[in-house]
Amino acid sequence: MPVSIRGVRALVPAASGDLRPHDPSRRHWIFDSKIASPMSRWPPYRDDRRSWGIDALGSVVVEVETTSGHVGIAPSVGGPAAAYIVEHHLARFVEGIALDRTAIETAWEQMYAATLFYGRRGLVVNAISAIDLALWDALGQTLEAPVWSLLGGTPRDELALYATTPDIAAARELGFVGGKLPLPAGTAEGAAGVAENLAAAAAARAACEDDDFFLAADCFMSMELEFATEVARGLADLGFIWIEEPLSPDDYGGQRLLRERISPRIQHAAGEHEATRWGFALLFDGRCIDIAQPDVGWCGGLTELLRIARLADAAGVLVIPHGSSVYSYHFCATRPQTPFGEFALLDPEGATVSPQLAPLLLGEPLPENGRVRIPETPGFGVTLNRDLELARPYAR
């Protein structure tokens, strides 16, 4: 009998939306450091990203249960708000469908079309992404095959990774192929902000003079065109190979102009906060970027990431996805055009390797010497941590 989807569930932490892989009482570089953001325009929000709510929504995890008894899982950002959307709007397009690629693609189109009047990106597309990834996980489990084997092509045995961290020396010592430095200052800080950013970049360069170890800089949507241009040129002088997401993702004209101004000395990377093939088509058609960085948990899931990648290949744009651990590794491992993936050093100091999705998920493969082995286990190869206190707040 063909396998179909019996049910869809959306779970969140019972106590709060917080599922960070560290002690919340201890200072953490991601949340408690001066890292530039769109909120850096206002001094009260410059020194602590938690102050403006970067962690306010928390996590959501979607489970899809099949008639064969398998349960596919996938997380995203969205907390209870995303859980409500999954349970009370999107589940109807998934429950009862056959578990095959054609049905998964049809469900994606229906979920997207049904939410156009209030969605198109952000929270809603995060919810769609989690459902889509959970369906792929369930499909792999049902077929007793890892997801990468369902994508075609010849996978690599292991995937090289670069590390995102404020401690670039640690990334080099751990064997990663490169390091991405979060910059501290945005446009509102003017000339002093440019100097602060380039001083941080110079310190990173001094910590790793190895020509085989590359450097990149993350700006997290904190800059305007003139400021970003000046920072990018200074980074190029220091040998950085890309500047990441300096402008608002909605500023397509600015992104095109920035790339024109700084190319070919340094590449422009963006797309972490872009979504769907239509959003990325604006970047590709406008010749806005050199490197596309879709996050598979935010851009529309694996179904949409595959479409985005086809557009990127046609446009001659490199695809290096943002984060997402195993959900990204399976995609990257099958693509000769994707040279490496991203790994964030998520310990409080950004100096050691730890699971990206802990404590929510178990079984993540961890890199050794900057490389990760691609799982052979069915689906994405991870399981939900059943020891966590999780709730289903909007059960039907």
Short description:
The chain is of the alpha/beta class and 396 residues long.
Question: What does this protein structure show overall?
Answer:
The protein has 396 residues and is an alpha/beta fold. It has eleven helices and 15 strands. It folds into two domains: 5-20 and 55-145 and 386-391, 2-Layer Sandwich (Enolase-like, domain 1); 150-377, TIM Barrel (Alpha-Beta Barrel), CATH 3.20.20. The protein has helices at residues 29-32, 79-88, 101-114, 123-143, 168-173, 190-207, 225-237, 252-262, 276-285, 301-315, 325-333, and strands spanning 5-13, 59-66, 71-77, 158-164, 178-182, 214-218, 242-244, 267-270, 291-292, 318-319, 341-344, 361-362, 371-373, 383-384, 390-391.
SSE string, helices as H and strands as E: EHEEHHHEHEHEHEHEHEHEHEEEEE
Report the biggest beta sheet as strand number plus sense, adding barrel if it closes. 9 strands, mixed
Tell me the CATH architecture of the largest domain. Alpha-Beta Barrel
Radius of gyration (CA) equals 20 Å
DSSP helix fraction: 25-40%
Essential attributes:
396 residues, alpha/beta, Enolase-like, domain 1, TIM Barrel, 2 domains, 9-stranded mixed beta sheet, 15 strands, 33% helix, globular
